[in-house]
Amino acid sequence: MEAQIPIVSIEGAPFSRGEMYGSEAKALIKHNIDYYYGLWQRNLNLSRRMVDEKASSLIEPIKSFDPGLLEEMRGIAKGSDASIEEIIAINGRYELVWSQMGQAPAECTALAALPEATSSGHTLLAQNWDYKVGVRDSCVVLEVKEDGRPTVVMHTEAGIIGQKGINSEGIGLVVNAMVSDRDRFEPNVPFWVLCRRALGSRTLSEAMNVVLRTRKAVSSNVILAQAGGVAVDLESTPLDTSIIVPEGGVLVHTNHFIGPRSISVKDEFVKNFSHSIYRCSRAKSSLERGFGRLSAEHFMDVLRDHFGEPYSICAHADPAVGVDFQGETLSSVIFDLEDRRILITKGPPCESSYHELEFPSLKGREMIT
Fold first, then answer.
1. Are strands 341-344 and 327-336 parallel, antiparallel or unpaired?
2. Domains plus CATH for the chain?
């Protein structure tokens, strides 16, 4: 029987939520802290003290951005017997990995289809999350019930408060790593904290504003979509954000810049890992061919594509590179935003079945149609 991803459900005041998260996922959080501190020591020659200093520089930006999320991270530290610096460090790992280890060959393929393109008339959003094999078994599905905000369900690394997910207002978010020559580690809001705040939004406009108005130290990409048939891609650099909308009812993004406002930066990822180009092309062509008939099953077929393996849409570890730089599809997720339906795998979708996750808290409000 396939192993399932642990589910952690938290609610209440920010510190209490974090303490629940930290206590329930303590062993997995410790693994992730040890993994990342070791990764940064081996590859960036950063001691624990140096990483903690970088993490400390993020405290004030996070507090100014959303003090409740900082309190939640303090609670995670308490519940997991970790320091606040360790918890902030792993929540800032996107900046540390991609601003200083941009050669890491992780991928990601993200897809969206609007109602006119799907057989059900629903909005579909999906992603193959391709990342380091070192955190393959230390991820969780995190359900957050927060007073005054929509319920959020995410798949993320244990101890991290934001990533790809869906909320009870029918808003979904998926991500792609991006690397430009302007990326630097600076004391700004970490990308995963930004994603969590966006997912806590009541409207798509509010979620987009979170991404568009928050200063960024490194490049990133998100696709935001909402039930009712709207999707938008926000491709950001430290200088600006390109706004990309669906064509023919579909939207695809991988790991290279395609937006009109990216011409002022140099794409550092695609120079070394050109597979991003054919992954984007193949996924988009497949969705376009299925226009009007697209379904979760069609998305599964796209996400299992092996052209160019191991650097394919369904990614696998390359034994020719060191283990710190090996990536594979750690999880594949498909969201039906009208039904608040989540289909997810643990591991590459060619090897793992999609399991449906049921969260009544996502359906507590009247659905948008």
1. antiparallel
2. 104-362 (3.60.60.10)
